[in-house]
Amino acid sequence: MHSLPLFHRIAGRPVIVLGAGEAAAAKRRLVERAGGIVASEDEPHAMLAFVAIDERDAAEAAAIRLRCGGLLVNVVDRPELCDFTAPSVLERGPVLVAIATGGASAGLAKALRLRLEALLPPALGTLAEALGRARERLRIRWPDAGERRRALDAALGQGGVLDPLDSGSAERVESWLAGEHQAAPDGTVEIHLRSPDPDDLTLREARLLGAADLIAHEADVPPAILARARADAARQEIARGEGIDGQGLILLLRAPPPTW
């Protein structure tokens, strides 16, 4: 991964935008759409800056000045001068999907966003808002954080009662909280890898890998496979043959982990 994706809250905060023309105007609209306040270079409280200057030397000089002042800088169409890049954004209420290529191709990021626009239903934002309102009730029903996460994973998974791609999911949040649907599964699931390519995982295997609380794996499992797991999932390396034959993984969906 070449960059760390982050969402930066700028509502009510100044963001410097330098330059003229359509590129600068587009960055001003981007800042204002997120609730930020477009500011000039002498704004002392800004933390982010966009530079939309065509002439390379002038753009680089502006970037250096701003960076020396402690700001993170984006220089339009010059990824080598950027501290951060602006992704193509898909918005569904509070749900934001950001697509970036590290500055390699803004056109590709836009094309991917347009494809996703057709896939994600407009009601996705309503589902997010309903889950946000239910946060305290979720804690009451599933006091244990692991159980709560597994319940959400099962409900939000493909075909689940709250499947995000189902436009009617938001209407089922209340009945799901009332216990009218099957609880999340737990236990141990074993996966035998067919190749070192993560794209050879089945959809079910990929979903389980992304939901597991603990990943117990042999030493030669490729990092590309392990990267498909949750970043906060516990990891445990095991000796070959302890539960898996050849190259493979064991996914534990329940904590605490057993002794191997």
Please tally the β strands and state the result: 10
How would a crystallographer describe the biggest sheet? 4 strands, parallel
What is Rg? Answer: 23 Å
The sequence of SSEs as H and E is: EHEEHEEEHHHHHEHEHEE
Determine the oligomeric state from the structure. single chain
Outline: globular
Percentage of helical residues?
A: 25-40%
Unreliable runs:
254-260
Order of strands, widest sheet: 2-1-3-4
Distance between the termini: 32 Å
Q: Which strand-content bin applies to the residues?
A: 15-25%
Count of DSSP H/I helices = 9
Topology, element by element:
Blueprint: E1 14-19, H1 21-33, E2 37-39, E3 48-52, H2 56-68, E4 72-75, E5 88-92, E6 95-99, H3 106-119, H4 124-133, H5 135-141, H6 145-156, H7 173-177, E7 188-192, H8 203-211, E8 214-218, H9 223-226, E9 234-238, E10 248-252
Description:
By secondary structure, the protein is an alpha/beta fold. Among the domains are: 124-177, no CATH class; 188-252, no CATH class. 33% of the residues lie in helices and 18% in strands. It contains nine helices and ten strands. A hairpin with a 2-residue loop joins β5 and β6. The radius of gyration is 23 Å and the shape is globular.
Summarize this structure briefly.
By secondary structure, this protein is of the alpha/beta class. The protein has helices at residues 21-33, 56-68, 106-119, 124-133, 135-141, 145-156, 173-177, 203-211, 223-226, and strands at 14-19, 37-39, 48-52, 72-75, 88-92, 95-99, 188-192, 214-218, 234-238, 248-252.
